Each structure stands twice: as structure tokens, then as C-alpha cells.
Backbone:
């Protein structure tokens, strides 16, 4: 006997809804199929809605004619003699064995065939069905069994096989939406589904025939990665599919892939068919994760979620590698976290030697795909390599105190920045990396100590005679306002002077670097011809204490005193320049509840008065220990600094950021004792943490002269950073080290129109030393050099030489790309339409500078390039770049444009050559 078809409840319901309206009131339905009861009892009762009313249905499965007759007899005479309940009889009895007396009571007077394909067509309200589905029993049965509570969506005229399978995937596996007309299926979607809590488990619970059918369809739709993934899902290991794919990709790309075959086979089990089948799966997994990493690196709303998802996968891949003993095969892989750590350890091993190996190790680390996601660790490693570069540069000579403080602000303070970064340690907490960083910090501190010792000796000699009348080439702290703030106050200017008490040079460069370049432009005095633009650095009073240095700064003369003396001196200083001034200390500028700043301060900022504000955050942090654990500073770390800067910008005020002295941090072990020398109270009295009276000991220097404002004009100050005379704090000041004596001066303007005469822009590229920037360093043209004419020869001498000395023949100079560009007909024609176009020499210099820098420079650097070629200052870099855009962007093609929210000028070299053709070699 052939196998009888089966029919489930849903098939019976659809059959009744189609046949009962034409049943002429008959209550017996014979079905030519075996009832699929699943795990339920043999008889089923349910309700079906027909012609707008509910009908009770009882299903019975019978295997004999007598059984069918008896069931009908009981239903019609005992169970529901006068009702309208329906009896549905299924079973294995052929229709030709049923008598006509029984058939007469049945709908259509014969057993009704169950046509799954037609039922599916009806369920989707389709007119026709894809002919490929008619013979696919697994698909039809699955569609009947998986119909959603609200039914299948209407398919329209034709229900295609792909539409049916997509609907089935959504209903069975929650892969997509049953109501969607399309389903965007790719490897990303399938791997993401494999990471859901229930998706793979739902697949594993399907009948084998249905799993095979869905696997075949997904393989065709997605590619060869699907079979391995679904095989893992069938084994209830779907959640590990992506980690296993990433691990397989790593192993297969290694030199020992063949040797790892047994381990891979054991890991994948029955899902491992061959290397040929595994490679597409591994490649797809790597591609998916690479795209996830790109999303995690973005600044979108899902950044954190994607980052967590990436590391969950990769950490599991590393765990599987350990469990499968595949760690030896993956080595310094460029994707796994273990590979990143391996590269980081390799970099750490190079930090004790020359810079070249460290540079190479850093390139290997930054090429790892997790370098950006491990941004903090990568930046710490980059900082370590920067310090290695610094250690391998020649130790500079300390020609003078002035030169030393300028060099410290321009270069060696960045070593202090790097030391603070490394002191925090690496987030991996790896012992080998931590020890390497510790050794590197020791080497940097040793070199800094040599610089401090040399500086202290120069300082001692300079201090003996230095004064405002004879500064010895140095900018004195009492002259800072005259040299930095007064030029900004010319012609009615209203500078805001922000005194950050205790701000050392390393803190200053961090704060300046974190400012929004779209809001603030840093400016400095124009350097002498041939010199580079640099920030101003002053020398503090001695000892480098608040009571003497801050008072001298604000009063404009050597003095000492507290807040009242500072307010009086600040007012008197500006009164001499016929300007009103007001100084705010702690407690005077903070606003009451509901106010960001004090109304009195805002009123002063709105006036024409010169305003000064003293911020104590940094100096206070030296006592409470904030900086002992974290050495990095941003404007948000300074109380009210962002609010003050915003207010200054709103009122159109330039800003002078200055300190009264610097500080050193305590990096000695926590259990260390006092390291200062105290021999007797009479001769060696400790006056402060870093200075005392009496003869100098190891790490100290005796200072005497008009700039020493305490202890009768003679003190002994520590230059070695680990010396202190008082109880331990996070940091100290009062000594004679470069970090304590150097006073950084940062001058900012909110608009180019406020740049004073004799001043110029400081390009961001000039704010850090070359050893810090490394490969990122951008070459800039020097300031224009005015040649000094040689002494003229006397006429007899010249004539005598003409007879004996051959005339030199000057070699023809090859024009630069910029020079060739401005001579092309296209450029000359375009220039006619641009009003107030800059000179050809300026445009050529800008193009050459951009090409030399790789196509990108800040607007300030572009303006500096033009100034370097012409000697003419470009006071508004953004406006200058806008004019260049009109000159070079013919027909709107972006040869040159502002990108990154106006912070970078970008040149398209290929487009430049296309728009201005010529001999562009």
C-alpha cells in the first residue's frame, strides 16, 4: 500500500473553509489523509470560522470502515444529534472501500484530497504558485506548520519559492520579518543571527529535511559560508560560528596551516568537510568582523554596542584557540586580541634601544585591526616610541636661561607629557609591557635630570644679575603682561588674562592642543628673519612660589603678596596704560546657583575693561592628589575654564593663558621618606617643599640675586625632581628645575581681525617638536630670510680678481609644481574672475607645501606657507583658503577644499594635474 499523505490541523481548517460553504449542510467530511497529531491525542476538537460563524470540529483518525461508520453514527445520534458540529474522518481506509450509504452524508460524497500546494497558495492569498514548490514536500509542510497567528502575508498574483522561503525563515528562525516583501540576506545578517540567543537553537530544533532545504536555499542566496555556519547551528554551536570562523581564518593564513589541520578538524567536528569548504566560511567571517570593527571605530550612536560585540567575538576566538591548542599557530595575528598583545609586547622589547626598531614595531602595532579600538593602549605605545626618539636625539646645549626655557616649552616639556602618559600604565595590565614602560620612564627622568642640572647652573649665574633692566635675553614673568597682553589691548582691544596657578609647560601644551581650532587661533610675535615661530616662555621669580611669582606677574614688577596686593597691582599696571582693569580670584568668578559664571564677571567682560581671572585647579590638585594617578589635562579638567573661554569668545576677547610657575610630580615609591637634606635648624631650615636655606647638597643649587624675593635674597633650591623637604604630596613647586621655573604663555584670538601688528599665526604643526610628531611631522617653509649683503670689494681688488677667478655659471632651477601650476593658461584665465586673488608666489608656495605634506595642512599652516614666500601675513587663514578654492576649483571640481569641519585644507594632487595640465612631473 502506498504511503498515505498526512494533514495537520491547519490543513484541515483550510480545507473546511474551502469546502463547507458548498457542503449543502452536510456535517461529515472525509479526508484522504492521515491526521498529523504531533504530540497531541488522537482525537482533536477545535473551532473553525466558516461563512461568518464558528463551527465546532471534531477530528478522528480511523483505520477501518467499521470505525468510520461507528464514529459517524455516534456523532449524528449521540454526541450532536441536532447541532451543526462537523466530524472530520481521516485515516488509512481507501475511498473505494466506503459504501454509498456513508458517502451520502459526506461533503462532496467522497473523500477529499489534501493538496498542500493549493492550501499554501490559499494561505498566502495568491492566485498562482511557483511550480518548483509543488514537489517540495518539506517546504509545503513547513509553511503549513509555521503559519503565524495572524496568517501569512498576502503574496499577490504569484507566490514565488524565494518569497515563501523568506517568509518561512522569518517565522521559523526569526531571520527577517514575515511581513516584509524582501529580505536583505548576506553573510553579515546570517552571522549576526548566529549571535542571537535563540536563532541557532531554533534551527537545531527543525526536522532534518527542513534544515537541509533551508541550508540549500541559504547557500544559494548567501554563498559557500552558509553550510558550515548552519552545520554548527544544527550542532547547537551556532553562537561560536563567528569566533570559529575568525580563528579558522587566522590559522589558515599562517605558515603552519597544514600542521593545524587536526586541531581544526577537532574544533569544527562534523562541520569540517575540507579546507576548500572551510576557507570561504573563514573569509566571510573575517569580512563580517572587519565591517563590524569599522562600525565600532565610527562615532555613531552604536559605537559602544559594536565595540562590545567585536570584543565578545574576538575574546571567544582567543579562548577557543587556547582550548584547541592553536595559540602557537596564530602568533602576532593582525585581528585577534592576543595578536595585538603580542605586537605590543614586541614593541615593549624595543624600547631600550635605538629608535628604528621601535618605529618598526609601532608600525606593526598600528597595522593591527584592533589598533583603533584599543586607542588608549595604542596611543600609550606611540607615546613610548616618541620618548625613544627623544632619548636618541642629541642632548642640547644650554646656552642661556632664556634659550633653556624656550627649548623646554618647545621640546623637553613634551617628554614630561609622555612620562605622565606612560606613568598611568597600559590598560592591558601586562607585566612585560608595564616593566618596559617603567624602564623607559627611568631613562627619560635620568635625561631630564641632566637637563635640569645644566639649567640650574645657568640659572644660578643668570640670577645674580638678572633684572627687568637687564633680563639677559629672557622674558621675565613680571614682563609677561607687557609683552603678551598689552599688544592685544592696543587700539581698544580687551584681552582676558587667565592665570592658571601652577600650570607647568607640559600641562599648557596639552590644554592648548585640546582647544577647538575653529573657535580659537593661537598667535605669537613674529620671529626675527630666518627664525621659526615659537611660543613665548618666561622665567618665574625665585623661589617658584605663588606669593612671589603670581604677584610679580599681575603687578608687572618684582614683588610679593596675596590677593589684595595682586588686585591693586593689576589695576595700577593697566591704569598706567590708561585702561580700566579688574581681577577675579577664587570665589569671585563662580556663579551662584543657576549661573555658570558670576554676573559681576560677565558685566566686566561686556565692558571695555581688561579682565583677569586666577584659576587654582592645578595648584590645588598638587595637594589633593588628583594628578598623582592621572597626568593628562584637558580644558574640562580646569574648573570653569571652558565657560570662561566661551564667554571670551562671545564677547570677542582675545585670551592670554599664563601660569605663575610650574611644578614637578612626585613619582617616588609610596613608602619613600623625605629626601631633602636637613643638617641644622640654624643653617639648613626647610622653608618649602623644594627650597630651604643653607649650603647646597646633592641635587640642589644655591641661588642669589635680585630675583630671589625671600630669605634675604639667597636660597638653596632643588633641581632634582625627587627631592622634597616636607610631607608627601602629589606634586611640588618652589625648586629650580625647568618644569618649575618655566612659565608658558599661550595667546589666543577668536578671529583673525584681532591679531595685533607684529604678530603672526602659530600653525598647529609648529606646536609640537618633530620627535613627538615623528612620521606625522609636517614640513613647513621657514620664515622669509633677508640675506645679508657681503662686504663690497674695492674696485682694484675686483678688477684683479676678474682676471684670475672664473665666473660661476648658475645652474637653471627646475620650477616647482606650484610654480608650473600658476603659469598654466587655465590658472591665468581663472585668476581673472577672482577678486583680490593672492600673488602667484603665495599660491605656488601653498601648493608646494601641501604636496610636500602629503596633501593636508591646517589653515594656519597654509597661511604660514604663503607668508614664508611673500613675507606678507595672512591674518584670516580661513578667508585666504576660501579665495584659494575659488582660484583652483574650476567648474566646482574640488582641487582644494576645507575638510574635517574646517580644521584641515586638503589638496587633490591628481585633480590638480587634470585641471591645470602642463609639465606636471
Residues:
Amino acid at each position: 500500500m502506498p504511503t498515505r499523505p498526512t494533514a495537520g490541523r491547519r490543513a484541515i481548517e483550510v480545507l473546511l473553509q474551502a469546502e463547507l460553504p458548498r457542503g449543502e449542510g452536510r456535517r461529515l467530511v472525509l479526508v484522504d489523509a492521515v491526521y498529523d497529531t504531533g504530540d497531541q491525542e488522537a482525537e482533536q476538537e477545535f473551532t473553525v470560522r466558516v461563512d461568518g460563524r464558528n463551527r465546532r470540529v471534531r477530528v478522528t483518525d480511523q483505520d477501518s470502515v467499521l470505525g468510520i461508520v461507528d464514529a459517524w453514527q455516534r456523532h449524528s445520534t449521540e454526541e450532536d444529534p441536532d447541532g451543526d458540529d462537523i466530524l472530520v474522518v481521516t485515516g488509512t481506509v481507501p475511498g473505494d472501500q466506503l459504501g454509498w450509504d456513508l458517502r451520502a452524508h459526506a461533503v462532496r460524497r467522497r473523500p477529499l484530497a489534501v493538496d498542500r500546494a493549493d492550501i499554501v497558495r490559499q494561505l498566502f492569498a495568491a492566485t498562482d504558485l511557483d511550480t518548483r514548490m509543488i514537489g517540495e514536500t518539506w517546504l509545503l509542510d513547513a509553511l503549513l506548520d509555521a503559519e503565524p497567528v495572524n496568517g501569512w502575508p498576502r503574496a499577490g498574483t504569484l507566490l514565488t519559492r524565494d518569497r515563501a522561503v523568506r517568509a518561512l525563515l522569518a517565522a521559523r528562525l526569526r531571520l527577517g520579518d514575515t511581513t516584509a516583501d524582501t529580505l536583505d540576506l548576506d553573510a553579515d545578517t546570517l552571522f549576526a543571527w548566529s549571535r542571537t540567543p535563540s536563532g541557532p537553537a531554533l534551527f537545531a530544533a527543525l526536522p532534518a529535511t527542513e534544515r537541509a532545504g533551508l541550508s540549500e536555499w541559504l547557500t544559494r542566496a548567501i554563498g559557500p559560508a552558509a553550510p558550515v555556519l548552519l552545520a554548527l547551528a544544527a550542532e547547537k554551536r551556532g553562537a561560536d560560528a563567528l569566533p570559529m570562523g575568525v580563528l579558522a581564518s587566522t590559522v589558515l593564513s599562517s605558515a603552519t596551516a597544514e600542521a593545524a589541520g587536526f586541531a581544526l578538524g577537532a574544533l569544527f567536528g562534523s562541520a569540517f568537510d575540507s579546507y576548500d569548504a572551510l576557507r570561504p566560511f573563514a573569509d566571510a567571517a573575517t569580512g563580517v568582523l572587519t565591517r563590524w570593527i569599522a562600525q565600532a571605530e565610527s562615532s555613531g550612536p552604536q559605537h559602544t554596542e559594536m565595540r562590545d560585540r567585536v570584543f565578545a567575538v574576538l575574546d571567544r576566538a582567543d579562548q577557543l584557540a587556547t582550548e584547541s591548542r592553536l595559540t602557537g599557530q596564530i602568533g602576532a595575528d593582525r585581528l585577534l586580541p592576543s595578536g595585538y598583545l603580542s605586537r605590543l609586547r614586541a614593541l615593549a622589547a624595543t624600547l631600550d634601544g635605538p629608535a628604528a626598531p621601535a618605529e618598526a614595531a609601532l608600525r606593526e602595532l598600528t597595522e593591527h585591526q584592533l589598533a583603533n579600538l584599543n586607542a588608549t593602549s595604542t596611543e600609550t605605545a606611540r607615546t613610548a616610541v616618541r620618548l625613544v626618539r627623544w632619548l636618541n636625539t642629541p642632548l642640547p646645549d644650554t646656552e642661556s636661561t632664556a634659550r633653556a626655557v624656550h627649548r623646554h616649552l618647545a621640546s623637553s616639556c613634551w617628554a614630561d607629557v609622555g612620562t605622565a602618559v606612560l606613568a598611568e600604565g597600559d590598560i592591558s595590565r601586562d607585566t612585560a609591557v608595564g616593566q618596559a614602560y617603567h624602564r623607559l620612564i627611568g631613562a627619560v627622568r635620568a635625561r631630564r635630570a641632566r637637563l635640569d642640572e645644566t639649567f640650574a647652573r645657568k640659572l644660578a649665574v643668570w640670577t645674580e644679575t638678572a633684572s627687568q633692566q637687564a633680563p639677559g635675553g629672557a622674558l621675565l614673568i613680571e614682563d609677561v603682561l607687557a609683552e603678551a597682553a598689552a599688544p592685544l589691548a592696543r587700539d581698544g582691544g580687551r584681552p582676558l588674562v587667565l592665570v592658571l596657578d601652577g600650570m607647568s609647560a607640559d600641562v599648557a601644551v596639552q590644554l592648548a592642543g585640546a582647544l577647538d581650532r575653529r573657535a580659537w587661533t593661537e598667535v605669537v610675535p613674529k620671529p626675527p628673519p630666518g627664525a621659526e615661530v615659537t611660543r613665548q616662555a618666561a622665567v618665574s621669580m625665585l623661589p617658584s612660589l605663588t606669593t612671589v611669582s603670581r604677584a610679580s606677574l599681575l603687578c608687572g614688577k618684582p614683588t610679593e603678596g596675596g590677593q589684595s596686593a595682586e588686585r591693586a597691582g593689576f589695576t595700577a599696571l593697566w591704569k598706567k596704560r590708561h585702561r580700566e582693569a579688574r581681577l577675579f580670584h577664587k570665589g569671585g568668578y563662580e556663579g551662584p546657583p543657576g549661573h555658570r559664571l558670576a554676573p559681576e564677571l560677565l558685566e566686566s567682560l561686556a565692558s571695555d575693561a581688561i579682565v583677569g581671572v586666577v584659576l587654582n585647579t592645578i595648584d590645588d590638585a598638587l595637594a589633593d592628589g588628583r594628578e598623582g594617578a592621572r597626568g593628562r589635562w584637558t580644558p574640562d579638567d580646569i574648573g570653569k575654564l571652558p565657560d570662561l573661554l566661551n564667554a571670551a569668545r562671545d564677547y570677542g576677547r582675545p585670551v592670554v593663558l599664563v601660569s605663575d610657575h610650574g611644578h614637578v610630580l612626585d613619582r617616588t615609591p609610596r613608602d619613600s621618606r623625605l629626601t631633602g637634606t636637613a643638617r641644622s635648624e640654624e643653617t639648613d631650615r626647610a622653608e618649602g617643599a623644594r627650597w630651604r636655606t643653607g649650603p647646597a647638597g646633592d641635587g640642589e643649587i644655591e641661588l642669589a640675586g635680585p630675583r630671589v624675593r625671600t630669605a634675604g635674597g639667597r636660597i638653596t633650591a632643588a633641581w632634582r625632581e625627587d627631592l622634597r623637604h616636607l610631607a608627601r604630596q602629589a606634586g611640588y613647586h618652589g625648586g629650580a628645575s625647568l618644569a618649575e621655573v618655566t612659565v608658558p604663555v599661550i595667546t589666543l584670538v577668536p578671529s583673525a581681525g584681532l591679531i595685533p601688528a607684529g604678530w603672526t599665526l602659530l600653525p598647529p604643526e609648529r606646536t609640537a617638536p618633530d620627535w613627538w610628531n615623528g612620521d606625522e611631522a609636517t614640513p613647513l617653509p621657514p620664515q622669509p630670510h633677508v640675506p645679508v649683503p657681503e662686504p663690497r670689494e674695492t674696485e682694484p681688488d675686483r678688477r684683479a680678481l676678474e682676471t684670475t677667478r672664473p665666473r660661476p655659471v648658475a645652474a637653471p632651477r627646475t620650477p616647482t609644481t606650484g610654480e608650473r601650476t600658476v603659469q598654466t593658461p587655465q590658472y591665468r584665465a581663472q585668476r581673472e574672475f577672482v577678486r583680490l586673488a593672492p600673488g602667484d608666489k603665495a599660491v605656488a608656495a601653498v601648493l608646494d607645501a601641501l604636496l610636500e605634506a602629503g596633501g593636508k595642512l591646517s589653515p594656519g599652516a597654509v597661511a604660514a606657507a604663503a607668508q614664508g614666500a611673500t613675507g606678507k601675513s595672512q591674518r584670516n587663514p580661513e578667508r585666504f583658503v576660501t579665495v584659494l578654492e575659488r582660484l583652483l576649483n574650476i567648474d566646482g571640481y574640488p582641487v582644494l577644499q576645507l575638510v574635517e569641519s574646517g580644521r584641515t585644507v586638503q589638496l587633490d594632487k591628481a585633480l590638480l594635474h587634470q585641471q591645470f595640465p602642463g609639465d606636471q612631473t
Summary: The radius of gyration is 42 Å.
